[in-house]
Amino acid sequence: MKNKKALKILRVILFALGLLFVVYSGILLSMNNFNLGNVLPGLLGIPLLLYGIFAPHLNKWFSHGPGRVVKWIFIIGYLFLICVFTVFGIRMGVAANTVPPENADAVIVLGAALKGTQPSDTLARRLDTAIGYAQQNPGSVIVVSGGQGPQEDIPEAHAMRDYLISHGIGENRILVEDQSRSTHQNFVNSKKILDERFGEGSYTTVFVTNDYHILRGLINAQAAGMTDVHGLAYRSLIYTAPPSYMRESLALLATYAFGADVT
What we know:
By secondary structure, the protein is of the alpha/beta class. It folds into 2 domains: 1-97, no CATH class; 106-258, Rossmann fold (3-Layer(aba) Sandwich). Helices cover 61% and strands 11% of the residues. It contains 8 helices and 7 strands, in the order αααβββαβαβαβαβα. It has helices at residues 2-31, 36-62, 65-96, 121-136, 156-166, 183-198, 214-223, 241-258, and strands at residues 106-110, 114-115, 118-119, 141-145, 174-177, 205-210, 229-234. The strands form 2 sheets. A 5-stranded parallel β-sheet has the order 5-4-1-6-7, sandwiched between helices. Strands 2-3 form a two-stranded antiparallel ribbon. α2 (36-62) runs antiparallel to α3 (65-96) and α6 (183-198) crosses α7 (214-223). It starts with a helix and ends in a 5-residue tail after the last helix. The relative contact order is 0.13. The mean pLDDT is 92. This is Integral membrane protein. InterPro entries: Cell_Envelope_Assoc, DUF218, Rossmann-like_a/b/a_fold. The chain crosses the membrane at residues 12-31, 37-57, 69-90. Residues 105-230 form the DUF218 domain. Keywords: Membrane, Transmembrane, Transmembrane helix.
């Protein structure tokens, strides 16, 4: 009797979580671009939702043969993801809260999606963060780094340059890197530009990106050969933070498993 009651409670909890995750993904997709972070809660929620609906039938199947194997695959998989999200979430939080030095020689702004020829909300906030730093440190040059994505009308770096100029940053302070298609390429290509300007290894760099992206940015910057490099975080909106941290956790897992050049 107690087991049946416990299973019923578990069924209700998993159904509620699954429904919450699926609805959350729907809201995110209605307000933002299609990406793994916005889809991931829904992908995790669908199995929970289905279990909540079909638990009596599934429990019979899970009790023997192939069903037992599938059950343990799901249990281990969800536990693994919980561990990944927790460990990397803590590490990302620590990295995002470090304070960069003042008077850096260069500020690299990492690209993000465009809306037509204009920066998306995420990219605009990165640029606003860079503008704030540049105004307080007038000796810093700014590298706008980002190539042209498959659904973009112009390279991200060109839209970023225009945004900075329209917000009062002198064009002579802006260096354009418009070939990158990944975080690793952002740093490799930006380093080439800065090496030509300052000499290899003789400059301090601050890069600007979202809070959850700082840790992977540092890993990629160091893999590209940058030494004196620091992150400056733009704080993600609360409602977008959970899926962003989840997606970034998987990207970090891929980075550690396969190397920085894959991300």
